[in-house]
Amino acid sequence: MKKLLLATSLTGVLLLGACGNNESESKESKQEPTQLTFEQEEKIQKEELRNLTKSLVDTVNADDTSKEVTNKLDKAIKQYEDKTKDLKQVDTIISDPVYKSAKTFQTTLSSIRDINEFEENNSDLTETVKISNIDIVYHTIMTLNSINEEYSQVDAGYKNEVLGEELNSDFTNVITEADMDTTELAEAMGILAIEYSEELTDEQLNQLPSKDYRDLLYKYGYTDEPDVSKNEYNSM
Prior knowledge:
76% helix; Lipoprotein
């Protein structure tokens, strides 16, 4: 009799365990996200990409490096990243250049703002400010030239289809307006570095903005290896 009761109890426990597992599996299956179709992903990608492109164009056209203006671009980039991070089926031939351009301007505008702040506190260091600004512009142009080369290879009709004709035109203007020969900038930077005569205090050196923007920009587009003039600037 005891054996029968024990067997019955064990059976009950096993059955409860099995039911519990089924319930757990059922809950887990309910929590799994629904797989989006290609059409659904494409719709999300296009909408978020247009929002990001519009924000980028507005920020660049504002010609203002204030935090209030650049915050809008920061938020647009963050929203784009959040909304598209799980999209696995969409084509990125257009979104990649747009995203890299947005990140490029985000980095550049932040660096320029840092230099402006440094200048306000050290108005006598004109050589340092000038060479710092040229260096930022140089690396930004090199990066945008690389992105522009990538984007120009995409079919014009497809770009108009994804972004819309007007927005595509506006974005193209953003990345091509900076399309220029960087030779003169490099030469100017070299001359400034050679003739550099300012001596910064330890406090001023600590205030001088970091040159980390170079590494950040390098992620988004091709930039050449530092030449002699830039090596001299690095050692300042």
